[in-house]
Amino acid sequence: MKNKFIKSTVILIIGGFITKILGMVIKIALTRTIKTDGIGLYMMILPTFNLFITLCNLGMPTAITKLVSEHKRKSKKIVLSIIPIIIIYNILLIVLIFIISPFLSNNLLHNSNTYYPLIATSITLPFITISSIIKGYFFGKERVFPNTISNIVEQLARLILTIFLVSKMMKYGLVVAVTSVVLINVISEFSSIVVLLLFLPKEKIDKEDFKVDNSILREMLGISLPTTMARLIGSITYFLEPIILTNILKYVGYTSEYITLEYGVINGYVYPLLLLPSFFTLAISSAILPVVSNSYSNRNYSYTKLKIKQALFFSLLIGVPVTILFIFIPDVLLKLVYNTTCGSQYIPIIAPFFIMHYIQAPLTSSLSGMGYAKEAMRGTLYGSIIKVISLIIFSLLRIGLWSLVISSILNIAIVTIHHIYYVRKYLKVK
Question: What predicted TM-score, i.e. pTM, was given to this entire model?
């Protein structure tokens, strides 16, 4: 098990590094194609997109990972029985998005250009959901190679389409180009699904496999609902960001152009750069979930402690040196990655606090693996409440987009400290 965990982590790190590099190239191509105005528009709809993604999969990938790791003989039944329910649910969600998009665009985001990109997000949801569920199955089996390959193929498809499609769409206008950026996800996620299906075991499937097992469903919902709530809270907070900023900052005297532009800089350049090390920490968190779930359910608490300590150590091992670079040479890094220095004033302020963010994902996975997903949800809730309140307060103080920076820092600190406290409480980690 020890060697398997290390092997899985190494594969995920290598795969994560490759996908991150591809993601950077995509961002570079995107920023140079749709420019700062396009990035600003895309970032305005992205929080809503992320909210829809959270709603579409209902935390099922995490639940499937945990259940498959604990009940390997029932793994086929666990996955297949939930797919019909999820598909019907996704169709209903798509209809809802079509209905509410005009209101979101005109009354909340106050930007009619966001309407068609918002509609486009709904079309991508079923593909994202199916892909996530299959990946959850493979993580539960501790088979990370299929997920790694599918992620690389997905990014390659997204890169090719970004280079050759988006630039052609620009001649039809910025709205069409940004809408095409969203729709690219349909093809990229479909390519991911095709790759994943190739790795699935050749097992006989019958009608009984699709029938819902109430005991499995109850157990799954017990895991997925707290996970969904945690992500939903985070997604709603992210969704509220542009709404709060647009309305309050306009009220205190800032223009819509300034808000859209600066919001795009922070969420399009600053945060993606600071999140670059996350490929490492997310790999660790994905690998640690089934390991912790297995060891904790078998009451092997000492092994659980060891693995969590290792996960946090390796997260800090990459997080700390990278943070030092962010503090001292933000201009160089922004120029290297995005060919711009926009947002360099924010990075040295935010970077030290992102050390906490780098260990947040492994801590969340550890709590979920131990069966304390509700505790992780509470931490997310507390952080989100503080973020929204502080965002409103600091926006009223006329400090521009620094209100977003300060509220984000407070959110990171509160959630991470909460998770550390409860992991220590349940395992008495010293």
Answer: 0.71
